[in-house]
Design brief:
Blueprint (H helix, E strand, L loop, with lengths): L14 H14 L4 E6 L3 H13 L2 E6 L2 H11 L3 E4 L8 H10 L8 E5 L4 H10 L3 E4 L4 H12 L1
Parallel strand pairs: 1-2, 1-3, 3-4, 4-5
Helix pairs in contact: 2-6, 3-4
Length: 151
């Protein structure tokens, strides 16, 4: 598993702070962890969603950036999992827009991609992703990564 040394800075007081503590409070209260999966491949989304749901995770899924942004703002998932090569708008655009929106800026973002050479990791960190995983990525690896970013 390739992880980036970069971690997001602590959230300033305000909406970002409340969102982050709300997600933690929901998990502590026994509420399900919510993961938003953004991947252009229907089968990949289905496999990841099924695996996560068997692990008592609420999985939201979509194949495009516009819908992903709407789902993220409306549902405030605990983690966003996305790929870089998305149709119309790329995954880097998704990451940048999530980081710029006050209610989604603090959400950890796991990027699953075939672009995992060192320069790509630097771009991923610059864009604001929390962790990058190489494709193919097994559902078990993804689940480990999700648990790691939630700690």
């Amino acid at each position: 598993m390739n992880s980036l040394p970069w971690r997001p800075s602590p959230a300033p007081p305000g909406p970002q702070r409340r969102q982050r503590s709300g997600a933690r409070r929901r998990r502590r209260a026994g509420g399900p962890t919510t993961v938003l999966i953004v991947d252009s491949d229907d089968d990949t989304r289905a496999i990841y969603s099924t695996f996560l749901e068997h692990n008592r995770v609420r999985a939201l899924q979509t194949g495009d950036v516009s819908t992903a942004l709407q789902l993220a703002v409306q549902n405030r998932p605990d983690v966003v999992v996305c790929e870089i090569a998305l149709p119309r708008l790329c995954g880097e655009t998704l990451v940048a827009r999530l980081r710029s929106h006050p209610s989604t800026a603090a959400i950890p973002i796991v990027v699953v991609t075939s672009w995992v050479f060192p320069p790509d990791e630097v771009l991923g960190a610059a864009a604001g992703c929390t962790l990058m995983l190489p494709k193919p990525c097994s559902p078990t690896e993804l689940w480990r990564a999700i648990r790691a970013v939630l700690r």
